[in-house]
Structures are given as structure tokens and as C-alpha cells.
Amino acid sequence: MSPLIECEDVWKIYRVGDVEVQALRGLSLTIEQGEFVAIMGSSGSGKSTLMNMLGCLDQPTKGRYRLNGIEVGNLKPDQLAEIRNQQIGFVFQSFNLIPRTSALENAQLPLFYRGLPLKEQRAQAAAALGRVGLRGREDHYPTQLSGGQQQRVAIARALVTSPSLLLADEPTGNLDTQSSQEIMKILETLNRDEGITIILVTHEVDVAAYAAREIVIKDGQVLSDHVTQPRPTASSVEG
Amino acid sequence: MSAFVWLTILTALRILARNRMRAGLTMLGIVIGVGAVIAMVSIGEGAKRAVQAQIATMGTNVIVIFPGVTSASGVRGSQGSAMTLTVSDAVDLKKRIPLLSDTGWAKRDVMQIVYGNRNWNGPINGISPSYLTIRDWSFTSGGPFTQTDLESAARVALIGQTIVANLFEPGEEPVGAVIRIKNVPFRVIGVLAPKGQSAQGADQDDVIFIPFSTAERKVFGTSFIGSVGAMFGSTDQVEDLPAAAEQIREVLRARHRIQTDKEDDFTIRTQVDIGKVQEGTSETLTMMLFAIASVSLLVGGIGIMNILLVSVTERTREIGVRMAVGAKRHHIVMQFLIEAMTLSLVGGLLGIVLGVAGAKLTTLIAGWPTIISGNVILLAFFFSLVVGLFFGLYPANKAARLNPIEALRYE
User: Fold this and answer.
1) Shortest CB distance from A96 goes to which of B1, B14, B408?
2) Nearest chain A Cα to B324, which residue?
């Protein structure tokens, strides 16, 4: 079985006015199914660009990026949207819930674009909220929830499609220590018990410590890549 | 797909309900536009119907023939000033043209009418009995005079409602009374049923009919016996009017010995011609009102576009999130289009209510006739839909073209 993520000599070059910015410079990376990876790096290291690309929000200028064996570089915007909908769940630093919309409807959103019947959307979204410990909060609006709860709704939204990849971009950046720990425990459980691949961007060492593998990015390239914990056997998904 | 559309409509309604004030103000343009279209067209249609009713008072399938103008040393008189048409023309026309079911003739002059101690100046019409049937005159009391009255130049008169109102006490029975026209006594034998205004705005009930022969010999003092002020013909079918008019023209030219290169010494008008002119006027009025009202619909549409553009900017981040979780371009386009159309449709419905109420109120207050047609309501509804679609398209496309990364980062 092919690896979940394969980056080969990936370049990303922007033009900002007359200045050419090389955000990624020949980066290569392989991530297997079921891994829990932390990506670290200072601001401007290119880690945000990498995340956008791994999340199929962006495409490489040069080089190859394959997700589940699909070459992402040549896809059209609607095909990228399809892949995001089918394979990827996003968790953002600022939660990015849709305002004045209930927790259930927020969690429903990806299924809504999948065109599932309404009943199924609701049932699956309710189940996802249950998995992050928000049973009974389905009708709450984002403003009625704490930061930690909002982030859990966001995780439920990411989970609801059973994605092969969960991308968490500084998921604890806006949270207090206790909420941060709760969120990280949820992610850890999802990885360990359900085998969901998680890629986590952070600059906090104690948050990164939840991951089994740590990749440091600098100047658009991989600076270091090492396993911090032995991978628990339960997380390996045999196909 | 249907779940998607349904949920998007619900979402749109919720977003509109949340910003009630803003939605209301945005819709106002459409409400006023649709309301104005419906009210204006209803007023225009009412005016048109009123004109049609007035034209119908002329009679059924009527052809009017006026004499030409006099011309002395290049100075031309007014229409009908020549005395080129005669009673024998009218009689001959009926004989020669089978399409004509009847012909009649009339001559008029304004004269003083006296009854008791009251007097009135009104138009005296000397007519053939056939004139009454051609012009569809009916009676509220008494009846018409006969061919015998015409031949014997009887001093009998038929009077219109305006004359009754001006010469008689309320409740007094005019039939049997003797009135004097230019000092000649006439016995009233019939009172005419009211016709109201003519298509030209003249009071048709201000009228007295007396036999043509009596008028010629005893009242008008005509020097040229047999000349008429106008001739009338009628056909059984409205489709026959143009053909009948053409045949009348040929017969009259032959009778008057007009050379082929000379102009007619008479003018022929059919009821259809007169109707066309009048209806054309009210048609123009309706179109003008419609055009003016459409401008407010356009302004309303621009209002919707404006608010949607604001909304797209405000919700840039939301659009980014929707894209991140898998919304395709058409999903985003649909979302904003449905919002635009919800706005314009709700506005359109309110506008219909406003327009119908406005039309009814116009009838109630100003007394103008209005006709609210289902077609106009449908058209206005369809229009508001198109406005929503058209003016929603640009903001919707703008939203769908956002770059998800930038949209997510938008503060």
C-alpha cells in the first residue's frame, strides 16, 4: 500500500509585487497512514505553505505531491474541493466555525456539500459531536460555547466525513492550558483508537510532544525529521 | 442536490431574518418597483377599458362620413363645411352596398330650447330614424319617432338626460311636454338613456333629436335642401367595416363625379379607426407608466447587488471555511444567488400586495377605474425573480472566485 502523503522535490514560488518568494524549496516528505506528525518551524519557515498544500488548498509550483496515490498538482479547483471534502479534515487555530449557526449544523457542513440526505447529515454530525464529548450541545451557537468547546465542534466537523487525514493548524493556539490538554487528548485518542492520520502544526514543544514524529521545517526544506515516541501497535492500520 | 437547495434556502432566510432591518431596506427597492408596476399598469388598463367603453357608446360597427371642406380662392373652411353630402347619397349607398345593414344621416346646430320659464342652449340634431338604431340609442321613457314623422315633418323631439336635467324639475315627466326650439313648439315623445362622455370627452347626453325634415324646413332654415352634416352607416360584422368604407368611397366618388386625380370631397371614418387612435393613446400611457415603474425595479436590483457585495466581504472567512470543507464553486454561487433571489422574491410578493392595495386605493380615493390583471402580477413576480438572478450573479461569482487560503486568512 502506498504512503498517504508523498512529497517529492516540492517547490512553491510566489510573486509579491516584483519580489519572488520561495516558500518551499525542493521539500521531500513521506507520511504513512496512521501516523501522528507534528510539524514545527519558526514563522516564515514555510510550514503554513506546506500545510495549505498538504490540505489541497494550494498546489505546488514544481515537484509532485501525491495524496493517497492521487497526483494533486494537476487538479482543477472543483476537483481539489472534492478531495478536501472526501479525504481531509481541517482544524484551525481560530476554530473558524460559521457564526450564528448551531454546533450540529457546523458539524454537518462537509456532509451538506457531499449532498447526503438531511437525516443522514444530522445523524452523522450528532455522532461526531458525541465523539468529541459534546452530546447535548447540538443546538448551541458558537457564542454559547467556550473556546475549547468550539474547537471540539471544529474537530467534529473535521471528523464527520471519516477523512484519511486530519490537518490541525495550531489547534491550541487560542486556548488555555487546560483546554489545550483536552483537545490534544482528543486528537491523541482519535489517532490511537481510530487510526486517523494527524498532521499538527505547532510551535509549542509540549503540544508537539503528543505526536509520534516531529518534522522541523526551515527555509522551505526539512531541517530534521525524527520519531519521538515508538508508534503504538494499536495505531498501525494494516490494509 | 435538493437537500442542498432546500438547506440553502433555509440558511438564506435565516441570514435575512437575522439582519431584518438591512434586508427590509434592501427589499424596499423591489417592493416599490413591483408595487409601482402593478399599480401603474392597473391604472393604465383601467383607462384603456374606460376608453373602450366610451367607443362602444358610438354604436355597433359604425361608419361615419363627413363632408369635405369648402375652398374659395385657396382659403379652406373647416372640416364638414362643404355641403357635398346629401340625403340621396345616403339612400343610394344603402341601395348599392349590400354590406351596409343601414344608413342614416344627421345635421346639427346649437339653438335655444325653452320650456316654461327655463331655457338651455343645446345641439339640435335633425336625424333620420335609422340614425337612432345605428348609434344604439335607447330610451328611458317614451320611444323613437317613425318614418311617417320624418315624411310629415312632425314637430316631435327626443331629448337627452342633460336637457332633462336643465329644463325640467326633478321628478317631472318630460314625455308629453311641449318645448320650443327657436319658437317652434315640439312635443317630447321620448327621453334618451344616458351614454356619458364620448371618446373625445364630449357630453353625449346634451342632445335633442328631431326629424330631419322638420329640422330643415322649420328650424334651421337651410338654403340647400337635402344637404346633411354627416352620414352614418353600419355593418353586421366588424370585419366588414374596411370593405364597406372602401365601397362607400367608390360610390360617393362616382356620384360626385370626382376625377381620378382629385381628392375626395368627404372623409370616411370607421369605429375601428377611431378606436385605434384612442386605444393607442392609452396604450402609450400604459407603456410609459410601465417604463417609469421598471426603473425603480432596476434601482431595487442594484440595491440587492450592493448589499450582497457587502455580505460577500463580511463573510469572506465563512466562504473560506465552506471551501475548505469541500464547497465547490457552484455551491458558493448557488448560496449567494439563492440569497439574492429570496430577497427579490420576498420583495416581489410584498410589492404585489402593495401594488394591488395601491390600485384599489386609487379607485377608492380618486375614483379612477383600475383593472388588476393576473398577467401583470405574474409578470411582476417573474421580473423580480430575474432581477434577483441578474444582480445576484456578480456578487455570487465574486464569492466563488475567492482563493480559499486568502479567504481563510481574511480578518
Assistant:
1) B408
2) A84
At how many degrees (to 10) do helices A77-87 and B316-324 cross? 70
CB atoms within 10 A of CB A163: 19
CA pair distance A129, B96, nearest whole angstrom: 97
A139 in contact with chain B, both atoms CB, cutoff 8 A: no
Between helices A147-159 and A103-114, what is the axis angle to 10°?
Answer: 20
How far CA B32 is from CA of B295, B298, B338, B343, in Å, comes to: 10, 11, 21, 13
The alpha-helical segments, DSSP class H, found in chain A are: 47-54, 77-87, 103-114, 118-131, 147-159, 177-194, 205-208
Q: Which of B4, B317, B322 is opposite residue A115, by nearest beta carbon?
A: B4
- Cα(A205)–Cα(B252) distance, rounded to whole angstroms? 114
B346 phi and psi, to 5 degrees? Answer: -60, -45
- Partner residues linked to A157 by β-bridges: none
The reply to whether residue A90 touches residue B323, judged by beta carbons under 8 angstroms, is: no
SS3 of chain B: the string is CHHHHHHHHHHHHHHHHHCHHHHHHHHHHHHHHHHHHHHHHHHHHHHHHHHHHHHHCCCCCEEEEEECCCEECCEECCCCCCCCCEHHHHHHHHHHCCCEEEEEEEEEEEEEEEECCEEEEEEEEEECHHHHHHCCCCEEEECCCCHHHHHCCCCEEEECHHHHHHHCCCCCCCCCCEEEECCEEEEEEEEECCCCECCCCCECCCCEEEEHHHHHHHHHCCCCCCECCEEEEEECCHHHHHHHHHHHHHHHHHHCCCCCCCCCCEEEEEHHHHHHHHHHHHHHHHHHHHHHHHHHHHHHHHHHHHHHHHHHHHCHHHHHHHHHCCCCHHHHHHHHHHHHHHHHHHHHHHHHHHHHHHHHHHHHHHCCCCCCCHHHHHHHHHHHHHHHHHHHHHHHHHHHCCCHHHHHHCC
Please state, in angstroms and rounded to a whole number, the distance separating the CA atoms of residues A149 and B391: 39
| B326 → closest Cβ in A99, A113, A121 | A113
Cβ-defined contact of B329 to A77 (cutoff 8 Å): yes
Cβ–Cβ below 8 Å for B327 and A113? yes
Domain boundaries, given as residue ranges, for chain B: 2-54+277-409, 83-264
- Give the pLDDT confidence of B171-214 residue by residue, as tens digits: 888 999 999 998 899 999 999 999 888 767 788 899 999 999 99
- Tell if the CB–CB gap between B326 and A114 is shorter than 8 Å: yes
Q: Is A234 on the interface with B (CB under 8 A)?
A: no
Residues of B in contact with A153 (CB under 8 A): none
A55 interfaces chain B, CB cutoff of 8 Å? yes
Predicted ipTM of the assembly: 0.93
Closest CA of chain B from A117, distance in Å: 6
Q: Is pLDDT of A37 > 70?
A: yes
This prediction's pTM = 0.72
- Of the partner residues A57, A98, A113, the one whose CB lies closest to the CB of residue B331: A113
Q: What are the pLDDT digits (tens) for A153-209?
A: 999 999 999 999 999 999 999 999 999 999 999 999 999 999 999 999 998 888 999
Does the domain formed by A33-61+74-234 have CATH 3.20.20.240? no
A113 and chain B in contact, CB less than 8 A: yes
